[in-house]
């Protein structure tokens, strides 16, 4: 069936000498894979650029629910993240987020509100000229609510520890051991309620930023099977350390 939908590029992998497999998150059909032949030859080079992480596309596709890889009929660019891909720090964030999203988004599970959150986040991030070092942390914190494991808000300053198993802030370290120390827990409590416009107000050293990020990735790993091996994590940590 011929369908139209908007899609966010997550990543692409090489397939044969001239083709690619592009993984996209679509608004109507969730995460989908597309086999695109001839995309890596010289004539199609300009189109290949448009299948880099965080490009937003308008698709026309021959959709079949039982097909492992969908057939792309036509596409056009809805939003070009020019500033993301012209800035080395931002492009590292884009690769990292594309890898995380590939691992946590389910195939054929549409979630229009989550798609809109991701789309709006990309457009905001592309427009940031400065003060974006905490963006990827705020994004993961916000995304957790759409994935179904957003923690409860810390109601009392005495709740010093973030219990990652139960997604709550508690006054004493839980016996199961899956918790963050008081300093990281306090920072996470801020990130779970902060808006993008205020993320630069959370002052972090490079080491603290990496520790908060490691804790969030661990939190994701406890609730979802995918994020245990994020290859781009160490590169991202080096960039913002």
Structure characterization notes:
The chain folds into two domains: 1-80, OB fold (Dihydrolipoamide Acetyltransferase, E2P) (Beta Barrel), CATH 2.40.50; 82-241, de novo design (two linked rop proteins), CATH 1.20.1440.120. Helices cover 37% and strands 22% of the residues. The chain contains eight helices and eight strands. α3 (88-104) runs antiparallel to α8 (233-239), α4 runs antiparallel to α5 (135-147) and α5 (135-147) packs parallel to α7 (206-223). The mean pLDDT is 92.
Q: Which short descriptors sum up this protein?
A:
three-stranded antiparallel beta sheet; de novo design (two linked rop proteins); 241 residues; five-stranded antiparallel beta sheet; 8 helices; OB fold (Dihydrolipoamide Acetyltransferase, E2P); globular
CATH homologous superfamily placement of the largest domain: Recombination protein O, C-terminal domain
Helix-strand pattern = EEEHEEHHHHEEEHHH
**CATH top level label of the largest domain:** Mainly Alpha
In what order do the strands lie side by side in the largest sheet?
A: 3-2-1-4-5
Strand content range: 15-25%
Structural class: alpha+beta
- Name the poorly predicted regions: none
Rounded mean pLDDT is 92
What summary fits the major beta sheet? 5 strands, antiparallel
Radius of gyration, whole Å: 19 Å
Query: What is the terminal separation in angstroms?
Result: 48 Å
Number of helices: 8
**Could you estimate the helical fraction of the residues in percent?**
25-40%
- CATH architecture designation of the largest domain: Up-down Bundle
| Number of strand segments | 8
- The tally of domains stands at 2
Find the CATH topology of the largest domain: de novo design (two linked rop proteins)
| Overall spatial form | globular
